[in-house]
Amino acid sequence: MKQRKENRREEILEAGLEVFSEKGYYNTTTALIAEKAGISQPYIFKFFKTKEELFAAALDRAFDRILQTFKNVEARPEQIVAKMIEAYEELSVSHPHEIALQVIGLSVTEESIRNCTKAGLSRIRSYTLERFQSANVPNAEEEVTTFLARGILCNISYFLDLPEMIHNETK
Q: Where in this chain does the record put each HTH tetR-type domain (predicted)?
């Protein structure tokens, strides 16, 4: 029974990720998420008290997956930055809804979601800095700032379908 309940929660989170990434936070309703998950709307509230709580959980899931992706990177110290970029690019392809959710999370003004976004970005920054420092990346602090700034720019470029922000390409 507990396993089934946990599976249902996961299905709601995945449906939430998809719907939020397509419609944004403010245009998404729990009814749309319920429809996507194939359940009744009231059933969502057995797992999440509010839409805000569901969004924060989905956003947390996205940040956790990024962090785990970075932790799974195996590379020689001189390759760590390039390998982490490569891993993030692969994650962007395999989990595009989570990339979109990060961009959306930056624009939501509700305090709990702002706090979730801050906490997620802080965790990623702390881990990345620790990893760069242990790999003896020169100017690790600056490299982390550049790494994260480029990642956020990539997310925005992907979200807007504007690849020329990153590459000298036009559609």
A: 6-66
The pLDDT value recorded for residue 162 is 87
Mean pLDDT for the stretch of residues 55-84: 95
Residues in the chain: 171
pLDDT at 1 over 70: no
- CATH of 50-165, picked from 1.20.1630, 1.10.357, 1.10.3470, 1.10.1660, is 1.10.357
Quick one: which of 73, 95, 70 has its CA closest to 148? 70
Q: Are 153 and 169 in contact (CB under 8 A)?
A: no
Given a cut of 70, is residue 131 above it in pLDDT?
yes
Contact 132, 81 (CB under 8 A): yes
* Distance (Å, whole) CA 21 – CA 10: 16
Whether residue 31 contacts residue 41, with contact meaning beta carbons closer than 8 Å, is answered with yes
10 Å Cβ neighbour count for 39?
17
Whether the predicted pLDDT of 159 surpasses 70? yes
